[in-house]
């Protein structure tokens, strides 16, 4: 009687992969510590890879895919491994090959007159931002993980971040892609065109498909002129409805100069105060229910920017949609304001495990949704604490739930996580929202998606997956559960 | 011996369609003049429809599609019939049913706080613009045919227009779609969300697919606050390279307030002068090689806008990238400047038949491309006159060729159209450009596309078409030639 051999490394595949990329770029657990590729960013899951393969260029990526396809081996494309939904780490089967794009990190071209940057998928976002800045230009895509995440990963997941209000999501900053298909062909769509109606938009189909339809190997990104001045302000507001009113006011007065509009509830700030006591709170006695952070990017200069921002805030104070407000007087102060906002997830982690949501809603529905969700939460899980913050300008909230003070967080999650998720997602759905605003689906939400996604849409997605990856070898089980 | 009966109306289908939409909304040539649906906008082609069917709502659209699918009858979805590439008119076979969306024209919702407008596909673009304006908001999508074209058509073809520089193409203004699939199911994606990463982006796949993958029945469109002031300026420039330099200067100084940047060559303006003699030219003795039109949309007010625009123009004059410049002093003058630009295609038509191109290039390549293309054109077709104008800010040129003065235009086209197309498109391709920037492919360019589109991209498009419309009944032969 022979043991099942599905998890025994197939020498033929590994040998073939070694022939493609060189043996030093085919890593296995037998010879290497694969933690960096097998463990997810939040360190809540650890998979097992058949091997980690590190091709050097697009041709090698294509050859790796052809090799895996020939042997029926599933592939998990991976960038900086900063994803939050288990889209880029292998499952526990030990059968999946991790295809790391990290060696494809060249900046291929920067075109000043066309305002475009062509970079390879493995280029770290911060390096791409720097390449733009070195040319006096601006890549207006910014997220907390920018020091580790890669351009390919950012596009494969259609990442969001803090500048979506003006510049859109990652997809909106991409003009063209180079992609390796499921059968290992190279599709060259690296065009830096702002208008191109020559057939179906494969670029947008691939962006956000989380490596399940093809592997992004390079991209043309849109750049913008650097603003002459950027200013940051902080305001306390009496309610979420007031925050929405302030958003509308700021959009009317500032137009596209408004590049950031974040919101945070009182508990979010209290956690930051508790765990980052050295961070000064911007407004004294900050006991307002919500605070907002505004960012203005001005094409004219600092004086002009300051006058505009102060005018909006004065109007908001007069109208009662702000209780108090302050404009950062220098870059250090501005960075501190952003730092407070960015510390919320870290403060949450310090406080203990919590139930995270990455939801979006029509901006108009946010006050009603939050009121209903908070009330329902208190009914179902008395004492649960809501840490509510996010990119209000985009309708995107991180609506996270922490256990009651002093409770055992792990036991709380064990007992309530599924209930809380269903409660929140059902209400999100009822208000026309999305259960994944910027993080994607991955494996984490793949089984949940069918409950909320339109069934016809799901059927179309399955048909597309079948058409472009008939062997189901590209990141199988991510986005769509395999049937 | 019996005659072939492919063009004989199939009573079973027509009866079934009558049962769905009512007999008064199934029009045939036997009882109606079908010119409005069978003839294309440029009046160069006249097809023949088996019938024109006019459903009243989405459910009827789905039922019409199911009926046609059951009988294997091809469907040509049609909006305002303003397309320029034979994408929305029937072919000559008499077998295709035209499915007109014109009765689906309701404004379903306007959400002020969310800045969204939900409209049905048959709503005329101008009516949608008006619905936004009535609420004090702005639908920043504007094209010459806006009085006739429909929202559905604009999205199905990913139309461009004059405000792409700041707001993007039609696809960039759409947050969600309602779509009828090839098998007559309704896919409800009418969500007004700025962030939504729940699976593949079907919206962007459908937008620009020209009715070949599904039929758009409604859409959620993004709105913007109305600008406080809009100003228009005109400048003569010594060369295309100077125009590109002026564009960069304007983008740096004005940022996103620059909402329009059009370019026109001398001949384009001379034709307007000849055929619209009553239109005053903005600058005296306008003999510069090129002129540009700039539009500034300002969130603060007219004085502020004027000071900014004058500062940019003064700088341009000083740097030599403008020879002369004028800012419109009132709305009438501004409209006249735009009117001159918009009269170019009309003046061309008055001058006689011509060879039209709708191309895009990286902005940085435009001067070199135009120099090479113009020289090659003169070598191959001596005396041919180039009417070159378009949306320079988007890299989109209408690079049109008129016969030598006094020559027979029809004979000229007969002799040279194919040669000129190949010459222009080959050069566009060599410079990394697109043979269809904003008009689409339709039937007109479907046979040309494979020469210039990446072969792997074409294969993926065919796979997607096969997956979503396996019977090939949705607008067959448009975008992709049937094989």
UniProtKB/TrEMBL annotation, chains A, B:
Family: Belongs to the FAD-binding oxidoreductase/transferase type 4 family.
Enzyme Commission number(s) from the entry: 1.-.-.-
PROSITE patterns, sorted: FAD_PCMH (PS51387)
Keyword terms of this UniProt record: FAD, Flavoprotein, Oxidoreductase
PANTHER family in alphabetical order: BLL6224 PROTEIN (PTHR43716:SF2), D-2-HYDROXYGLUTARATE DEHYDROGENASE, MITOCHONDRIAL (PTHR43716)
The organism of origin for this protein: Tepidimonas aquatica
Keyword DNA damage attributed: no
GO biological process assignments: respiratory electron transport chain
Name listed for the protein in its UniProt record: Putative FAD-linked oxidoreductase
Domain FAD-binding PCMH-type: 45-226
SUPFAM superfamilies the UniProt entry points to: FAD-binding/transporter-associated domain-like, FAD-linked oxidases, C-terminal domain
Stretches assigned to coiled coil: none
InterPro entries xrefs: FAD-bd_oxidored_4_C (IPR004113), FAD-bd_PCMH (IPR016166), FAD-bd_PCMH-like_sf (IPR036318), FAD-bd_PCMH_sub1 (IPR016167), FAD-bd_PCMH_sub2 (IPR016169), FAD-linked_Oxase-like_C (IPR016164), FAD-oxidored/transferase_4 (IPR051264), Oxid_FAD_bind_N (IPR006094)
Residues of the signal peptide: none
GO molecular function, one term: FAD binding
Pfam families, per the entry: FAD-oxidase_C, FAD_binding_4
Essential cofactor(s): FAD
């Amino acid at each position: 009687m022979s043991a099942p051999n599905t998890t025994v490394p197939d020498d033929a595949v590994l040998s073939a992969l070694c022939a493609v990329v060189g043996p030093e770029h085919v890593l296995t657990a037998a010879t290497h510590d694969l933690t960096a590729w097998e463990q997810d960013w939040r360190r809540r899951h650890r998979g097992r890879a058949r091997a980690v393969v590190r091709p050097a260029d697009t041709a090698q990526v294509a050859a790796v895919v052809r090799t895996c396809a020939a042997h029926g081996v599933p592939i998990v494309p991976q960038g900086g491994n900063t994803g939050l939904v288990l889209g880029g780490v292998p499952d526990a089967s030990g059968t999946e090959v991790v295809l790391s794009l990290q060696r494809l990190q060249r900046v291929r071209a920067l075109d000043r007159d066309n305002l475009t940057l062509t970079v390879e998928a493995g280029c770290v976002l911060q390096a791409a931002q720097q390449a733009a800045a070195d040319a006096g230009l601006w890549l207006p895509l910014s997220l907390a993980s920018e020091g580790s995440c890669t351009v390919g990963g950012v596009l494969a997941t259609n990442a969001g971040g803090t500048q979506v209000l003006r510049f859109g999501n990652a997809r909106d900053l991409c003009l063209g892609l180079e992609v390796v298909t499921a059968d290992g062909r190279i599709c060259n769509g690296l065009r830096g065109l702002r208008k191109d109606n020559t057939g179906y938009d494969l670029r947008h189909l691939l962006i956000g498909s989380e490596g399940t339809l093809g592997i992004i190997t390079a991209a043309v990104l849109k750049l913008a002129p650097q603003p002459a001045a950027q200013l940051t302000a902080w305001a306390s507001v009496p309610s979420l409805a007031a925050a929405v009113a302030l958003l509308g006011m700021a959009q009317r007065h500032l137009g596209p100069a408004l590049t950031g509009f974040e919101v945070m509830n009182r508990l979010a700030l209290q956690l930051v105060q508790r765990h980052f006591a050295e961070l000064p709170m911007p407004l004294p006695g900050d006991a307002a229910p919500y605070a907002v952070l505004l960012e203005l990017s001005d094409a004219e200069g600092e004086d002009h920017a300051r006058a505009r921002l102060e005018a909006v805030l004065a109007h908001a104070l007069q109208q009662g949609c702000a209780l108090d407000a302050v404009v950062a007087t220098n870059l250090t102060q501005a960075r501190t304001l952003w730092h407070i906002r960015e510390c919320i997830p870290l403060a949450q982690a310090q406080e203990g495990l919590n139930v995270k949501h990455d939801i979006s809603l029509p901006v108009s529905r946010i006050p009603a949704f939050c009121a209903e969700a908070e009330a329902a939460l208190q009914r179902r899980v008395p004492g649960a604490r809501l840490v509510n913050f996010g990119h209000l300008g985009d309708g995107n909230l991180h609506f996270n739930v922490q256990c009651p003070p002093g409770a055992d967080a792990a036991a709380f999650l064990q007992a309530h996580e599924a209930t809380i998720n269903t409660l929140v997602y059902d209400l999100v759905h009822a208000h026309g929202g999305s259960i994944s605003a910027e993080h994607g689906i991955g494996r984490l939400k793949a089984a949940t998606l069918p409950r909320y996604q339109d069934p016809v849409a799901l059927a179309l997605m399955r048909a597309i997956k079948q058409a472009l990856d008939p062997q189901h070898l590209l990141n199988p089980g991510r986005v769509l559960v395999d049937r």
